[in-house]
């Protein structure tokens, strides 16, 4: 087996990425403590043509050394905005017609594999703080909650790992033509 070169992969240029149709997915980062996790969010968002990242509360914003380290240039491609708090971000995206979906372990959560969305749907995925998760005040007003089933001894996944899993799954449902 032979690895493909960067030329073989035919990745978009920054300019082509900016003008390309995006998935109708927004990431809302609810007070992430680690700028490295924020950088991972940018890199993963780039991979799945995410429309925008909303950095809320204490979440670090570009330019930041640790974001740059893990984003590897994705801060130049993925649009982002900062909100003083996550509730303001939720209100903003709800007004734009996004379905707000927390990624959290909750009594009413829907296992990821059972969560259905129609192609073309507008989804805002909310990822919580590395210690406290998605804030309860946010949980009180989201439209849905998705949970990633886990079977080992640990009670959670790293937030950046969760983002990758969710974006892979949701992107296939929202923009299935990308996966053909």
CATH class wording = Alpha Beta
Gross morphology is globular
Tell me about the biggest sheet?
7 strands, parallel
> What count of structural domains?
1
* Fraction of residues in H or I helices: 25-40%
Instruction: Identify low-pLDDT runs.
Output: none
Lateral strand order in the biggest sheet? 3-2-1-6-4-7-5
| Terminal CA distance | 23 Å
Write the layout of secondary structure elements.
Blueprint lengths: L5 H4 L4 H6 L5 E6 L4 H13 L4 E5 L8 H7 L8 E4 L2 H10 L3 E5 L6 E2 L11 E5 L8 H4 L4 E4 L11 H16 L6
Parallel strand pairs: 1-2, 1-6, 2-3, 4-6, 4-7, 5-7
Helix pairs in contact: 3-4, 3-7
Descriptive labels:
7-stranded parallel beta sheet, alpha/beta, Alpha/beta knot, 180 residues, 33% helix, globular
Structure description:
The chain is an alpha/beta fold and 180 residues long. Helix content is 33%, strand content 17%. The protein has a 7-stranded parallel β-sheet with strand order 3-2-1-6-4-7-5, with helices on both faces. Helix 3 links the parallel strand 1 (25-30) and strand 2. Helix 3 packs parallel to helix 4 (65-71) and helix 3 (35-47) packs parallel to helix 7. It is globular, with a radius of gyration of 16 Å. It starts with 5 loop residues before the first helix and ends in a 6-residue tail after the last helix. The relative contact order is 0.19.
How would you concisely characterize the structure shown here?
33% of the residues lie in helices and 17% in strands. The protein contains 7 helices and 7 strands, in the order ααβαβαβαβββαβα.
């Amino acid at each position: 087996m032979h690895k493909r070169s960067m030329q073989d992969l035919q990745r978009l240029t920054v300019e082509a990425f900016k003008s390309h149709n995006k998935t109708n997915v927004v990431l809302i980062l609810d007070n992430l403590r680690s700028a490295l996790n924020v950088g991972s969010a940018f890199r993963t968002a780039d991979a799945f043509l995410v429309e925008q990242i909303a950095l809320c509360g204490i979440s670090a914003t570009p330019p930041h050394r640790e974001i740059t380290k893990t984003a590897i240039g994705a801060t130049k491609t993925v649009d982002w905005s900062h909100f003083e708090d996550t509730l303001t971000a939720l209100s903003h995206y709800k007004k734009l017609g996004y379905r707000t979906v927390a990624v959290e372990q909750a009594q009413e959560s829907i296992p990821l594999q059972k969560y259905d969305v129609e192609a073309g749907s507008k989804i805002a995925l909310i990822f919580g703080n590395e210690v406290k998760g998605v804030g309860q005040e946010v949980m009180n007003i989201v439209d849905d909650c998705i949970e990633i089933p886990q079977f080992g001894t640990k009670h959670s996944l790293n937030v950046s790992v969760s983002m990758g899993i969710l974006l892979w799954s949701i992107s296939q449902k929202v923009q299935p033509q990308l996966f053909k």
